[in-house]
Specification:
single chain; 12 strands; binds (3S,4R)-3-hydroxy-2-oxopiperidin-4-yl beta-D-xylopyranoside
Length: 389
Amino acid sequence: MSVALYATSTPMRMSRRTFARVVAASAAATVAARVRLSFDVVPRLAGQEVALKDLVPRGWLIGAAINQNQSDGRDTVAVDLITRQFNTISPENLLKFQSLHPEPDRFTFDAADRYVAFGRDRGMAVIGHNLVWHSQTPRWVWDGPDGALADRATMLARMRTHIMTVVGRYQDRIRGWDVVNEALNEDGTLRDSPWRRGIGDDYIARAFEFAHAADPNAELYYNDYNLATRSEKRAGAIRIVKDLQQRGIRIDAVGEQGHWRLNTPTSAELDQAITDLRTTGLTVMITELDVNLLPQAGTPARGQPPSPESNPYANGLPDEMQQALARYYADAFRVLLKHRDGMSRVTFWGVSDGDSWLNRGRTNYPLLWDRQRHPKPAFDRVVAVLAGQ
Ligand code: XIL
């Protein structure tokens, strides 16, 4: 027997085993609907929706980056969706250096506290993002006298104060931290960030040491982008990990951000990337997953309208693109499942298309839920892959 599964797009057919998994998962969860099981077969489940968190392999975290409208509870539709679907959250902007520590002697924790409470109240794994980065960090952190760069001791002291205060505040409440974000150039050499120029190459090791001292139980991650598409950059990430390991410093996972495009990385590239990163012995996380469908160049200048060529789907996504996105997501999740024991988390960078940072004046479609917060064909395909494992 097989049972038709009515998805947002084309109806799919499921094997009995898959069907049983979906039913079990649905029954176990607070569920809502889009993958709708036919009413006459399973009346109790009609109109309910499967949850990704109930379908992922045991031990995996699956989540989304959330914004302040969500962590403050104003965006109630999204809050509902996040609560049902995910078992982990990341802060899209709220825990970045500039959000928490705008001036040397002033920390601003209110919104961050509410973000942490949002996750704790729901029994989710709360992620911290991030401690040391060249972006979204206020100038004072790196400034020395007369416009020069601060000296090593000064900059290290500032880094230490920031990390001890922030990580210490959320001790035992934040599961793990992106300690250092985007330290690499595309060729795998260390980026010439103000942190590195001020402190030296060991700024990375020091950041991890401070984070560990502030919360010995927290997991610590190195996070970067293009690790799946650029083997030289990936080799650089592996060097960072091995250096920390040789120094005896804690590191728990490597994050590939996962800001992907259709067919980039390919399944083969993603497979190879995870295999390579796993040689460190760490688990791999996809920490900021989204799939950009827009042309590469074309972000309009602030306040300017985008050119029509740079914004081809302003009036909607053609069905063939919708299906291509769904297939790409399905292929990617198949590879992630192949590495199920080596993966510990998948986090989307945003909940629905309307929330995504990839719009920036254009109309993008990178996530699993559309602007009306309805699940897209990509959601159905990911569900089918997870349920069929
Ligand atoms: C982005 C946010 O999504 C935007 O809202 C913000 O304006 C810029 O930063 N890599 C990261 C994330 O590690 O912190 C970035 O988030 C996306 C790229």
